[in-house]
Amino acid sequence: METQWEYRAVLAVDIEKSSGRGNTVLVRNRATLRELLRTAFGRSGVDWEACARHDLGDGLRVTAPAGTRKAPLVHPLVAELAGLLRAHNAGDRDPATRIRVRMALHAGEVGLTADGDVVGAPLETLARLLDAPPLRTALEQAPRSVPLALLMSRHVYDDTVRHGYEGIDADTFHEVGFTVKELTADAWLHTPGWTPPREPRRKARTRDRAAPGAVTMRNKASGNGVINAAQNGDLHVRITRHP
Q1: Strands 148-153 and 59-63, how do they pair?
Q2: CA spacing 20 to 30 A to 195: which of 102, 120, 205, 207?
Q3: What is the CA 84 to chain-centroid distance, rounded?
Q4: How many Å apart are CA 8 and CA 63, to the nearest integer?
Q5: Residues 110-135: pLDDT tens digits?
Q6: 132-147: string of b/e by CB count within 10 Å (b at 16+)?
Q7: Nearest by Cα to 120 from 129, 131, 112
């Protein structure tokens, strides 16, 4: 079978600071994350078994089934996963097995190969979103009780959040810019249960203002006149008439 190209939603999660915890803990945390994702997908009405799932080492990439609406992957999926992670972390006394994750969400035309792989440019964008500095910084700065930070592409935002679908609060998303490798893009950041500090946007500069001080310009005008203009001041026109 040749590669089959289809429009799909794609999602990736990565466990924060998973290195250095040891192999045994890594295996446990990966299994815990997979189970929590399975539960969150089920509660969101998305068929987990029909998803294509690929290991990312300390995370997971999930390609949703064909025809899956993107909105449920924003809500209730994100809130459900955050709640499950929060409950897990509260009940686990071992800091090494507490899990916080970065999450990225995108969509586009991907190729499904005969051996079960998924390929295509949307997966490259997804990887860049997952590794974007604003996403990493948001999770690092968030209180430890916040277990998840999400970065979604503008495409997904435009198809879901900006429409105000039920359960999606647009005020909890804010726009960020980033550059990772060859990709420079705008995306939308969401941290359930916490609002990160926002850097003020620079206003577009309409024109350069001159330095204070009078600057006089003298030009001839039609009608044998003279124009005297003071910068940031008044304009005076004197017409000289000849008999």
Answers
A1: unpaired
A2: 205
A3: 22
A4: 7
A5: 999 999 999 999 999 999 999 999 99
A6: bebbbebbeebeeebb
A7: 112
Q: Write down the pTM of the prediction.
A: 0.80
Residue whose C-alpha is closest to residue 104's, from 147, 51, 62? 62
Q: Mapping DSSP to helix (H, G, I), strand (E, B) and coil, where does residue 197 land?
A: coil
228 contacts 214 by C-beta, under 8 angstroms? no
Start-to-end CA distance of the chain, whole Å, equals 96
Q: What is the DSSP string of 205-223?
A: P-SPPPPSS--EEEEEETT
| Contacts of 135-140 spanning 24+ positions with Cβ under 8 A | 135/102, 135/104, 135/189, 136/102, 137/196, 138/189, 138/191, 138/196, 139/16, 139/100, 139/102, 139/191, 140/16
- Asked if 165 and 116 touch (Cβ cutoff 8 Å), the reply is no
Residue 195 φ then ψ, to 5°: -110, 115
Cα separation, 119 vs 33, in Å, equals 23
The list of the chain residues with pLDDT below 70 reads: 1, 199-243
Alpha helices per DSSP H over the chain: 23-43, 71-74, 77-91, 121-130, 133-141, 154-159
Q: Which amino acid belongs to residue 18?
A: S
Contact (Cβ atoms closer than 8 angstroms) between residue 225 and residue 237 = yes
CA distance 158 to 154: 6
